Amino acid sequence: MIITISREAATNGGMIGRLVAERLHIPVYDRELVDEVARRLHVEPTILTHFDETVLNPVSSMLWEWRASINEQIYRRYLTHALHRIAAEGSAVVIGRGATFVLRCPDCLHVRIVAPIALRVAIYQTIYDVTAHDAERAIHKEDREKASFIRTVYNAAIAAPENYDLVLNLASTLPEAAADLIVFAAQQRAHTLVQPDPHTLLPAHITEMLRHRRPVRREIVERHIVPR
Length: 228
What we know:
Strand content: 5-15%
CATH class of the largest domain: Alpha Beta
CATH architecture of the largest domain: 3-Layer(aba) Sandwich
Number of helices: 11
Helix content: 55-70%
Largest sheet: 5 strands, parallel
Shape: globular
Structural class: alpha/beta
Order of helices and strands: EHEHHHHEHEHHEHHH
Mean pLDDT: 85
Number of domains: 2
Strand order of the largest sheet: 2-3-1-4-5
Radius of gyration: 20 Å
Low-confidence stretches: 55-67
CATH topology of the largest domain: Rossmann fold
Number of strands: 5
């Protein structure tokens, strides 16, 4: 089971991911993933922070390539390899780094964590000694960078809910409760392992609908449920 956690800035996504990993007794990769890529590239991890979940402009990219002998394409290629290696080794929680869009597998659970901007500003101010105005500006900047990273590298929209199995809004959910919900969803996924294919999913949906007396057209039931 691979659990990927995409998060808006200042939503305690990293902490929630670590709580999930702790409860499931599986490894977690956040900064650890950057460290692994740095090890493979034989560079200091601090160098890779300039590529991590951001898209550099062409001038900056060339400067960093000249300074460190790597560029965004090399970093992302190694990042993708590292993600696939983690998935091949077994269960893990992966926080950010586009893992949601790299690891598309039946036993992957993709989670998105969001929260109202007022809460995010308060969380940011709890961590950093800044004004509410500066906190909100920093949050929006980080959100834009992550969205640009996903759009540029994976041609996807980071905020689109259809990219995730579970979207959690922290407006009325504390981090511990969010971790509990993710753990429950992961356990359910491990038991069912339903293939993410509409043709495979539909019979299961119809069966559940009939069980709960939801209207289903007879010809649809006959086509997908009744043996021929």
